[in-house]
Amino acid sequence: MDRGRRLCAAVSARRHQHLLAGLALSVGSDYDESDTVWLQTNGTRRPARIANLGLFLTTFYLYDLEEKNGQRTITGGTLMKLPNAQLPSLRIERPLDQLPLGGRHEQNH
Q1: What is the pLDDT of residues 26-84, one digit of tens each?
Q2: Number of independent structural domains in the chain
Q3: CA torsion 68→71→75→79, rounded to 10°?
Q4: 41 DSSP assignment
Q5: What is the CA radius of gyration of the chain?
Q6: CATH number assigned to the domain comprising residue 75
Q7: Residue span of the structural domain in which 43 resides
């Protein structure tokens, strides 16, 4: 196989990998566009919003926070686009709804 064909095959394989990851994220995921999440990037846990769940790429808005007097304020942020095949290697946390955590006796099961 010549160089051009190998390159085309490699690009095609990578594109299929991103497409399959995107389909898995769209169909079988607990995440939706506009969800607020915590994202671990470069050793730092940052608040983020899922801006777009595409077939090949997912876009996040990552926020910079400043804390003053116990209050957090958004002071800036960044846009991050990732190939969907990289998403499984990320640590993504989605905050749960407020739950009463006072003990078993306070919850009706």
Answers
A1: 555 678 888 999 999 888 899 999 999 888 889 999 999 898 898 889 999 999 999 88
A2: 1
A3: 140
A4: E
A5: 19
A6: 2.30.30
A7: 3-95
